Amino acid sequence: MRITRIAMVLLMGILLVASILAGCIKPGPIVEGVVDHKSVTGVKDDTSYTILLNRPSDEGPWILVEDKDYEEFFSEEDRHAVINKSLEDEMKTKYSSINYLVSVRLNSEDTVNNLKEGDTLAYFVNRDDFNKVKIEDEVKFEVSRSAIATIERFLEVYTRYRVKVTNNSSSEITDILLEMVGAEGSMSIDTLAKGESTVYYDFLLETVGEDEPIPFTYGDYIASYTQQGAEKGILIVKPATRIMICIDDAHYYVEADK
User: Fold this and answer.
1) What is the pLDDT of residues 194-225, one digit of tens each?
2) What is the pTM of this model?
């Protein structure tokens, strides 16, 4: 009985010290950067295999499926890899564990992993966070102090959308302002010359952050446009769609490129 009491006292002491130490662990540093690429790996017989790689490509698909058993889950038109629970369960029938990685080009230091601005590192993330971010998203995240090269959580995620405006009319268009709801910045066009003149502008839309995210369907965004200070309307633009906007006797197109 005496030994049991001593053991209980020792156990309580260990738990107390552990709880104190846990409370003393400081949050990891806040790091900023741009998503370079994403990948999913699987472990089988103590060996890690790349299941898929998601990276920008001028030629061919953005999602390169290395394990052909899962090629049917993605199309050549898909640009951003998203793994749902059923696909993860399917992968786990072949691999003992699945790892999700997001590679980030850093815009600030990561003191935990001894990285400086300009370095790139593939961080481990959970499946939900893997699905939250897309290639070329601008991100702010907390780095884990307890695990190697791991993102504890994303604090802010901004998705970049490129908008192309084309004047397809026979006359020039002046004083146009195009804004994206929930995004930073606006596109101001002093003069858009006639005859297929085109300008580009990048909008940053916050998709993860302190504010309530705007409930967009993936790839959609809402934009308002004005001419000479007068509100003209609200647009809902989908990627690969051209919306013609009529202003008096002129018109121009808005096209999204995610």
Assistant:
1) 665 666 666 676 777 655 544 444 344 444 44
2) 0.69
The b/e string for 192-212 (b: 16+ C-beta within 10 A; e otherwise) is beeeebebebebbbbbbeeee
CATH value of 159-257 in 1.10.510, 3.40.1130, 3.30.70, 2.60.40: 2.60.40
Please write down the HEC assignment for all residues of 56-90.
Answer: CCCCCCCEEECCHHHHHHCCCCCCCCCCCHHHHHH
| pLDDT (tens digit per residue) in 21-67 | 545 567 899 999 999 999 999 999 999 999 999 998 888 889 999 99
CA distance 149 to 121: 8
**What does the domain layout of the chain look like in residue ranges?**
30-149, 159-257
Instruction: Give how far Cα 20 sits from Cα of 25, 26, 237, Å.
Output: 9, 12, 53
